[in-house]
Amino acid sequence: MTATVSYAPTLEDRPSSPLLRMSLAPSGSAPVLLDGAWWPRSRDLGAELPSLTAVLDSLWGRITRVTVNPAHWPTVPRKVPVAGHVVKVGSFMAQQDPHQMLLLSYRVGRWDLLVIPPQTNPVAAAWLLAAASDPLRTSTASELMAEAARLGTATETDRAVEAVWDSEGGHEAGGPSSTPRIPAVVAPVIGIPAVAIATPHPAKEV
């Protein structure tokens, strides 16, 4: 079961900055394609990365390098100053999943996070945070995004059908109501500054 705790990155730039939105796979789980998910608030990698490393440095060891697919990052800086050190940033268009971030900790290992688009609605984001940190799943980052999109489409269709049913007096007549397709998940309460963090499992070998 994923543990949920509140955590405020101890950065000196903006004491009032919002807390991190992230989930990690539980300790002791078998090697998986994804080690968790991160839901940044913008596509500004230089601005978002310091708060991420502020948490991960203490959990995984100092993050020294990250790689991303530039498809969803307007600007990919080569280096990003973070608390106490500099993180080198690489970009790979063809070789890396567009929704994935790879993180390296020198002499420790590597981890892979699903990057949830900042504009994602809270229900879908909560599902993605939980799904990406589920050690029983074997989906890639893009496969999880596609699954969330299908679930969201199904839910919108259900709502439309339910609206028609209501307009025809269906609920008043005791007829069946639709059930949302996106299941309930263990994830942060969206809208409340909190971060879901499970004790991280050992890093993958580089």
Structure write-up:
With 206 residues, this protein is an alpha/beta fold. It has helices at 45-60, 122-132, 141-167, and strands spanning 22-24, 36-38, 63-68, 79-82, 85-91, 100-105, 109-115. Strands 1-2-7-6-3-5-4 form a 7-stranded mixed beta sheet. Strand 4 and strand 5 form a beta hairpin. The chain is globular and about 65 Å long.
Classify the beta-strand content into a percent band: 15-25%
Question: Helix tally?
Answer: 3
The ordered string of helix (H) and strand (E) elements is EEHEEEEEHH
> Taking all residues together, what is the mean pLDDT?
77
Distance between the termini: 27 Å
Query: Rg, please?
Result: 19 Å
Number of E strands: 7
- Low-pLDDT segments: 1-16, 176-199
| Main sheet overview | 7 strands, mixed
Q: Identify the strand order in the major beta sheet.
A: 1-2-7-6-3-5-4
Shape: globular
Structural class: alpha/beta
Report the helical percentage.
25-40%
Protein name: DUF5994 family protein
Pfam families: DUF5994
Organism: Streptomyces phaeochromogenes
